[in-house]
From TrEMBL, chain B:
InterPro entries listed in its UniProt record: ACP-like_sf (IPR036736), PKS_PP-bd (IPR020806), PP-bd_ACP (IPR009081)
Presence of the UniProt keyword Phosphoprotein in the record: yes
Segments forming domain Carrier: 5-82
Name assigned to this protein: Acyl carrier protein
Pfam families, A to Z: PP-binding (PF00550)
Phosphoprotein listed as a keyword: yes
Lineage, opening ranks: Bacteria, Pseudomonadati, Myxococcota, Myxococcia, Myxococcales
Recorded GO MF terms: phosphopantetheine binding
Keywords linked to the UniProt accession: Phosphopantetheine, Phosphoprotein
Length: 579, 85
């Protein structure tokens, strides 16, 4: 092959990342761990990502950048997270979280400013949260009150990644007093031009994980900034936030999946290199079972995030629903998977030195996936009030999503920031596709799909019960103070959406020797039932063996443990040293 | 499309819905007080928008309730939307 690879491709990024286990690689695990111990971002890593031009990936093509499909962005950032989650968050995702607000609500000049900043690989910070109010954004107290053609900034934001080194920040601020949903705005503030005597940086927060990511606070004291920094019309802040979250709350869990990919790889590598009771640890049935479970978890999570991410392009109206569902399910599955892997490593998951030292860092770095930039429960609270309308509309007359939602290689239209909506209007194409998929299987029943059809039939019956229960929910059960039983209905809805994503990714990849095999699908559906505590125990032996064989082949071939099966930097792995 | 209701009928329907939601009597819900004062949060607008869509047989932008946060204001805004269709 002499075709040069596209220098902006995931493959090119992987080549720059190189062999993680090579101690002489400036962005290998040894260096990553050294930076983590020092509480710093890996400088060589930041320079490498500058050279790759990662900032351009957060700028839409229409603004001169390379951001096209959300699935591509997740894929790229997953490669960074596989290597060093601190780089992933501290270099990349933090700027993305801020920039999405500008693409959603910013004027042409604001978009140009931010595009220019990111294309120069500068940092954009995002100041949303105040510790006193958590995810309750309507209570935010930080003020940006208008006075003529300026705004006066007053208040403190305690936890902002990169605030001390960002050129600009998007602040979520109260632009008028009072209750209601139109009192806040996002304000784009050029930090290189604010009067220095009105801005006070607070001491850096030390954190358990993501130690390299500089997390700081900032206090503005009656600080004048131009009023044209407001994104959209004054008062639009909550609306912009709720729309922007739809992009980030699917993108981030999709990126964080890379952490568990490396966690699984590290565990597998150590298990192959370690002998206990006369055989390698990887030969122990219990170990194989845990490793196969984790692989199935990754496929489940990737199918769900990929369908939801593609859905932002193809069914933007429903993105409030699907992305909230991803935010609730994927982080929990990923965290449980890492916890289980640590039991295979035994005492070594705890060591900060040696061949598996990266594991303890990954375990810590993974934690923000659950609470960072929207808590998991906020995902449920987004779904809950939509249930009655879903029961009356989309679940009563199901409409399937377009097949391209599940075709991994199908091209996508640009991200339709202007079509994001606060509510799905009762439509749910993902669940519609579950029923469509079942009908298609029942139309040509084969022995191979017998078990699958049985499982899907039970999901279809569950949808019917869910529809009746959701239709009967009294208004008080749609709020934050709803009973656990009502919250459980959201878990059911999320389960059905995730099942549909897996089923249809399998259907649409029928030509693929692995993804077209029902083994992984049955495994993913089993793991889904384990997630919601409807099932327990290992995968059936045949399926377990099929998955473990694929896992080993990918490990030896240095390929990703997700749907993409992409080749990783550094080629075939060197064996782990025997302790 | 169903006939356009009168302002009084629409206002009464809204009071009734909101009273049910916050578990009070409709008479306790004043038309000129921002709904947030009764404990209705921003998310409730989405639920109310769905109910209103079904009641009026038309589709609505849920932010209409954010822009018009009292029953009186919302009633006027809804009538305007309906007569301009």
């Amino acid at each position: 092959m002499t075709t040069p690879i596209d220098p902006t491709s995931v493959e090119a990024l992987e080549q720059r990342l190189g062999d993680p286990w090579d101690d002489t690689n400036p962005v290998g695990f040894s260096q990553v761990l050294g930076a983590d111990e020092r509480g710093e971002l890996l400088d060589a890593g930041e320079r490498m990502l500058d050279a790759y031009g990662l900032g351009a990936e957060f700028v839409p093509v229409s603004e001169g950048g390379r951001m096209a499909g959300l699935d591509r962005l997740i894929d790229l950032m997953r490669a960074v997270f596989r290597r060093d989650p601190c780089l992933g968050l501290g270099y990349g995702a933090s700027s993305l979280i801020a920039a999405v607000n500008v693409w959603t609500a910013g004027s042409a000049p604001q978009r140009r400013t931010v595009a220019d900043l990111l294309l120069r690989n500068r940092k954009l910070a995002c100041g949303y949260y105040e510790l006193a109010h958590g995810n309750d954004l309507t209570r935010a107290e930080f003020e940006a009150l208008p006075a003529g053609d300026i705004l006066r900034l007053s208040g403190t934001k305690q936890v902002i990644s990169n605030i001390h080194r960002a050129d600009a920040v998007v602040l979520f601020a109260r632009t008028q007093a009072g209750t209601g949903s139109r009192n806040h705005s996002q304000v784009l503030v050029d930090l290189t031009r604010v009067p220095a005597d009105r801005v006070k940086h607070l001491p850096r927060f030390r954190t358990a994980g993501m130690r390299g990511v500089p997390l700081g606070g900032v206090t503005f004291q009656d600080c004048p900034v131009p009023a044209d920094g407001v994104l959209g019309t004054p008062g639009q802040g909550l609306e912009t936030a709720l729309k922007s979250f739809q992009v980030t709350r699917v993108a981030l869990p999709g990126m964080f999946l890379g952490i568990v990919d490396t966690g699984l790889r590290t565990t597998l590598r150590a298990s192959l290199g370690r002998t206990l009771y006369g055989r390698t640890v990887a030969d122990l049935p219990q170990t194989r079972s845990v490793l196969a479970d984790t692989f199935a978890d990754l496929l489940l999570c990737d199918a769900f995030t990929t369908a939801a991410a593609r859905g932002v392009h193809l069914l933007p109206r429903e993105a409030s629903l699907t992305t909230a569902a991803v935010k609730y399910l994927v982080p929990r599955v990923l965290m449980d998977a890492m916890g289980r892997l640590s039991t295979v490593l035994g005492a070594r998951f705890y060591l900060r030195d040696g061949d598996t030292a990266v594991f303890q860092k990954l375990l810590r770095d993974l934690q923000p996936v659950g609470f960072g930039h929207l808590a998991r429960v906020a995902g449920q609270m987004t779904l809950l009030p939509q249930l009655p309308l879903l029961a009356r509309r989309g679940w009563a007359q199901p409409m399937p999503a377009p097949a391209d939602l599940f075709r991994l290689d199908a091209p996508l239209p640009p991200l339709p920031f202007d079509k994001l909506a606060l509510s799905g209007g009762g439509q749910d194409g993902l669940t519609g596709s579950l029923l469509e998929g079942l009908e298609a299987l029942n139309a040509h029943p084969t022995e191979e799909t017998r078990e699958l059809r049985g499982r899907l039939e039970s999901f279809a019956r569950e949808l019917e019960v869910l529809r009746r229960e959701a239709a009967a929910l009294p208004p008080r059960e749609l709020t934050a103070s709803a009973s656990p039983a009502s919250y459980d209905l959201t878990t059911k809805a999320i389960t059905l959406m995730a099942a549909s994503a897996c089923l249809n990714v399998w259907r649409q990849q029928a030509h693929d020797p692995f993804l077209g095999d029902p083994a992984w699908l049955l495994a993913a559906l089993h793991r889904l039932e384990v997630w919601r505590e409807r099932a327990q125990g290992p995968l059936p032996e045949g399926i377990r063996t099929r998955l473990f064989t694929e896992l080993l082949a990918r490990h030896e071939d240095a390929r990703a443990f997700d749907l993409t099966r992409k080749p990783l930097g550094g080629g075939r792995p060197s064996p782990a040293s025997t302790p | 499309m169903p006939p356009i209701p009168s302002a009084d009928a629409l206002s009464a329907w809204l009071s009734e819905r909101i009273a049910t939601y916050v578990q009070r009597k409709p008479a306790d819900i004043r038309a000129d007080v921002p709904l947030a004062e009764y404990g209705l949060d921003s998310v409730y607008a989405l639920t109310l928008a769905g109910d209103l869509e079904d009641h009026l047989g038309m589709s609505l932008d849920p932010t209409l309730m954010w822009d018009h946060p009292t029953i009186a204001g919302l009633t006027q805004a809804l009538l305007q939307v309906m007569t301009s269709v």
